[in-house]
Amino acid sequence: MTDTATVAARLRDSIDLLAKVPPSLVQLVLRFGLAGIFWSSGRTKVEGLLTISESTYFLFEEEYRLPLVSPHLAAQLGTYAEHLFPILLVLGLATRLSALALFGMTLVIQIFVYPDAFLATHLGWFALALAIATGGPGKISLDYQFFRRR
């Protein structure tokens, strides 16, 4: 077999192997990936378990400056959402709702906070959230366990 034929055969074998990955495992990895991004961000905004830090309030007052919402309320909503929705995603509970909520948060961040970060950061977050929202949680989830009979 020629080198080109060998490489092509190995590539074909690798693709065949990827086709055998269970979709539920893919959905689980997607959920953990999106959850990890927001959980990590949320943890930088608190001290201890869930005490919002003064620096977080400062960020929302001086850097983030969201319209229509007070900085104090925005800091609380954003910080708690960055904790709640990742937990729900990891558990696979209210999965589509959680993914849509994080999609919405990403949209707000993209439009009002970091508009230059679309290609470098936010496009990936949008893609993860959309894949989860449209594909569902998969079989490795509480949603599946609770609602599989319907």
What are its keywords?
150 residues; mainly alpha; 7 helices; 3% strand; globular
Instruction: Report the major sheet.
Output: 2 strands, antiparallel
Reading the helices and strands in chain order gives HHEEHHHHH
Radius of gyration: 19 Å
> Could you estimate the helical fraction of the residues in percent?
over 70%
Intertermini distance: 53 Å
Task: Describe the model.
This protein is mainly α and 150 residues long. Helix content is 75%, strand content 3%. It is built from seven helices and two strands. Strands 1-2 form a two-stranded antiparallel sheet. Helix 2 packs antiparallel against helix 4, helix 3 packs across helix 4 (71-91) and helix 4 packs antiparallel against helix 5 (95-113). The radius of gyration is 19 Å and the shape is globular. The termini are far apart.
Brief overview:
This protein has 150 residues and is an all-alpha fold. Helix content is 75%, strand content 3%. Helix 2 (23-43) runs antiparallel to helix 4 (71-91).
Architecture blueprint of SSEs:
Blueprint: H1 3-18, H2 23-43, E1 46-47, E2 51-52, H3 54-64, H4 71-91, H5 95-113, H6 118-135, H7 142-147
Antiparallel strand pairs: 1-2
